[in-house]
Structures are given as C-alpha cells and as structure tokens.
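Why does residue order matter? Because the sequence determines the fold. Keep that principle in mind as you read this record.
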Amino acid sequence: MFERYATPVETRAPHGETNAYVLGDGERVLVDPAARTDALDDAAAGVDHLAVTHAHPDHVGAVAHYARESAATVWAHAAFADGFEDETGVAPDRVFRPGDELGHSGVRVLDTPGHAPDHVAFLADREAATGDLVFADGSVFVGAVDGDMRAYVSSLRRLATRGLDRLHPGHGPAVDAPTARLRDLYAHRRDRERRVLAAVADGCATVDAILDHAYDKDLSGVRDLAGQTVRAHLDKLLVDGRVDWDGAHAAPATES
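Structure:
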C-alpha cells in the first residue's frame, strides 16, 4: 500500500506540493519527505527506512528531521552518496544500487535518470513512487544543467516495460493508466525534439529563436524553463549527431 502525504513546499512543479509516501510490505519506507506535516510526523514515527527519488530541494527538505526523529535507516544512491549530506543535511547509513531491495521492505530500486542524474523510482506490488519522472497531467521539466533528455526518454521506456498498475508521482495525483501515460510523455518528447530540429533546419540558431519557432503556446512565466528544456534537447541532438551545438549557437549537423 502506498500512503500519500502531500506537503506544501516552494516549487515550480504542478500543484505546489511534494508528495511523500510511506510504502513497503513488513518493513516500511518513507520516500521524499520534503516538509513536515502533522500527518507525516505520525506516519514517520513507525518507518524503518528513509529514501529519496532524487535530491532536489523540493524533495528533501525534511529528510534530516525525520532521520533524527525516527529510527529509520537512511539510504542514498551509491553513485551519488558523497553529495547526499550536502543536499539533505544528514549522512546516509547505507547505499543502494539499481535493483536493490531496501532492507526487507519488498521495495526495489529502478534507475530512472533524466530529470536529475540521481533519479530513481521505488517499486512495490506492481506500483511505483516515481518522483519527477511522470505526472498525471502536463510534462516533466528536463533541462540543463543537471537534466539529460537522452536519459529521460530511456527512463520512460524502461518504466513502461514494467507494465505497472499505478504510478505515484512526486507532485499531483496518481497515474492510473501508467503504460498509456508513459507512452504519451514519450510521444510528447519526440514531438518536441522534431520541432526543435525543424527550427534549427529553418535557420534558428539561438535558444530564443528556437523557442519562438518550436513552441505554439504562451510561455509567460515559464520561458526560462522552456529555454533550459530546449538546451537539453539540443544536447541530445548533438550526441545523436543531428545538430551542431556549442552551447550558444545551433546549426544543422555537418558531415565529418
């Protein structure tokens, strides 16, 4: 069972809250305690493990508090454990790697980088806590500097192959048709990539010019985020050999 606790935080993600979850079979795991609430205080008192989907500030604000106030084992991604204390205020007790189970909870780790390099999902009973990999509505921000569009679309495909029954995002309501939603998000990213590539082919060289060409919606208040997303697409297209991109100017790829 996934118990959801919405916690108000400063975030530009949808809904203005971050979802913390308590899950697990037998031993219980607290995931993404971004802030304290009375309900989460009560739930956290009985947890055995504490972990985060990724260490962005709007997901880790209460990690140190619940680490101090509970007897929970604090887990960190093995590849990013050195920076965990700087991000959360507490050193990890143990580290996990993709595929590991957290203690004897039945909760296993799936590697899902893209939104952040350390991003993971936590799977249990054909459901998953997915952090900022997928939302029930709208798209997930994937942008420079620590976003990786190539990794993100791979993570969408990886999770879709699991055929899960329900996803529990870091923001907003649950996703009750995971496979269809993941396919929609993948299609959205591929469509945006095609638009960015078409803009470059049409002579748009700068991020601002590509934004004006590739987006057909009002970007008021989110133009900076959209710009970082375009940069992430250009980074991917550079690796794919489809554009030349030096971080400031883009052009159609030249044959070497």
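The chain has a mean pLDDT of 95.
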